[in-house]
Every structure is written in C-alpha cells, then in structure tokens.
Amino acid sequence: MAMQNTVQLLGKITEILNDDKTKFKLSIKKNDTKFVYPVIKLSKQMEYLKNTLEIGKTILLEGKIFVEQENYTYICPCCNKLNETSFHRTTILATKAFIVTTEDKEPYLNKILLIGSLCSNPQLKYIPGKFSQIPNAKYQIATKRICEGTDFPWIVTFARQAEEDMKRLKTSSQVMVDGAILTRPFKKKFQCEHCKKEHNIEDTTTEIHGLKIEYLNNCNFDEFDNIQSKSIFQKLKEFLAN
Ligand SMILES: [Zn+2]
C-alpha cells in the first residue's frame, strides 16, 4: 500500500494537557466564525521543546495523524463508583515543530494529505444547511505508518464531494485525501459497569474534512468506463437521437 500521512498546522496553544507537557491543544481558525482544537503530541525527537510551550504561543508543526488508545476514568453520578475505560483518540504526532512569532492575530494553516483504504462502505446522512439539507458522507480509512502499525482515522465529506464519494467508494477502495483537521463536540455514551446505567459524557471528536478526494484503486469507475468503451458510432447515434 502506498504511504502518505502528512499534517501541517499553524495555530495557538490553548491548553497543556499532561504533566510532562508533551501534549497540548491547538486552536486553529477554520473560517470567519469557527475554530478547531486538535490535540498535538510531541514526538520523541521534539520533546526538547516542551519547556518552551506556553498558552498563547503560536506554533508551526509538521507531523502525522496518530490514533492512540486513551485510558479514561469517570465516577458514575448514580452510584458514585469509579469506572475505568479506554477509547481511541485521533491526535497529531508532531515530528517537526517551531515556536513562531507573528504580527498576525489569527494565523492559521490546516493541511492534511493522506492515502488509505476504506475499512467499510461509506455512510451518508443529511445535515441542515443554510438553504437546504447538505449530503454528508463518513468513512473510516486504514493508513499505514512509516515504521509500524496502522491508524484508522475518520474522513467526512460534504455536498458534492459527499455525493461523489457515495458513488465511487466501497470497502477497500483506496483514496488520497486532501483535507483539513476538523473537531466538534461529541457526546460519548458510557454504561456504568456497577449499576449498568447509561450516561452521556461531553467530549471532542477529531475527524478529517476531505476537501478533495482522489479515487485510486478499487473504486467504482463504472460510469466512466461505460463512456470510454462506447464506440464513436454509438455516441454519434445517441447525439443525433437527442
Ligand atoms: Zn453507576
């Protein structure tokens, strides 16, 4: 499988997330009103930067999408007992990072390039838009790490790109995703292992907004193939019939 997993981000540090200061939240402008807040983790070779990280500083980084298992503990509001669980969190592993100074109040860069294969068929739903319902496709891809292992990030696409994805993609289709990091509030469902009651826990989920999808291997090209294979004579006949 071809490998490509590159993330380039520029944003402001809004929160340091762990005691050894290697994990932090970045605020990146998405459009005029929205911001996204991806979680960044410094790679081993970048750990020397940790003592210079401060809330409000601007950081430029290059890295890769990294889906890691995160342990989580919560106290059940019904029975007050402790629950331990774990889930997958999509983070960015920074392999190069620089603290930068800029006059720009809201500098931003949010670029991702990924190659991967779909783990299952894409799913479509419609979300409310300004004037009408907008198609929204969602699919998980497997993308290989350079050294070892595989990551499974989620891709989301909208409008025409979503419609096209639904036509072209299926399980095991290989795609190149040119996109951006997207984060949104998300309610996680947990069931208490002691009293069995279910609770919603507020969290943030990180996905990749596919701005442009290139269809590589094992995609549906039926329509395209049909047009190609039609003889000139047949095309002419159709043209005259119309
Ligand atoms: Zn409970």
TrEMBL record:
Gene3D superfamilies: Nucleic acid-binding proteins. InterPro entries: NA-bd_OB-fold, Primosome_PriB/ssb. It holds the Pfam family SSB. It comes from the Bacteria. GO terms for molecular function: single-stranded DNA binding. Keywords: DNA-binding. The keyword DNA-binding applies. This is Single-strand binding protein/primosomal replication protein n. It comes from Clostridium saccharobutylicum DSM 13864.
